[in-house]
Design brief:
Helix content: 10-25%
Strand order of the largest sheet: 2-1-5-3-4
Radius of gyration: 13 Å
Largest sheet: 5 strands, mixed
Strand content: 15-25%
Shape: globular
Number of strands: 5
Length: 98
């Protein structure tokens, strides 16, 4: 089981509290996790990645094992600790301002 932590506004939209657990087949990648997340919670489609291009939305970031994975290819396997469920994949709404 893959553990995913969503930002508060997406937890509210998906009507969940705390972490989300997903069953994801190997290889565990950003794409496969997001596909499973959107399949289980269709109301999240288009909120994390674009409907058409499936690219990450500009103000969304992905973190795991204290690393920013936001600019990694969506098809690169996630760290083993995420694939094993030991560590969660964090989906974070980025802050911006001036």
């Amino acid at each position: 089981m893959i553990r995913v932590v969503l930002p508060a506004h997406l937890r509210t939209l998906a009507r969940v509290t705390g972490e989300v657990s997903l069953d994801v087949a190997s290889p565990v990648t950003q794409r496969s996790v997001l596909d499973a997340l959107e399949a289980r919670y269709p109301m999240l489609r288009g909120t994390i990645r674009d409907h058409v291009t499936h690219k990450r939305r500009p103000f969304i970031r992905f973190f795991a094992c204290e690393q920013d994975l936001s600019h990694e290819s969506a098809d690169v396997p996630l760290p083993g600790t995420v694939a094993s469920g030991s560590e969660p994949l964090l989906i974070v709404g980025a802050m911006a301002g001036g």
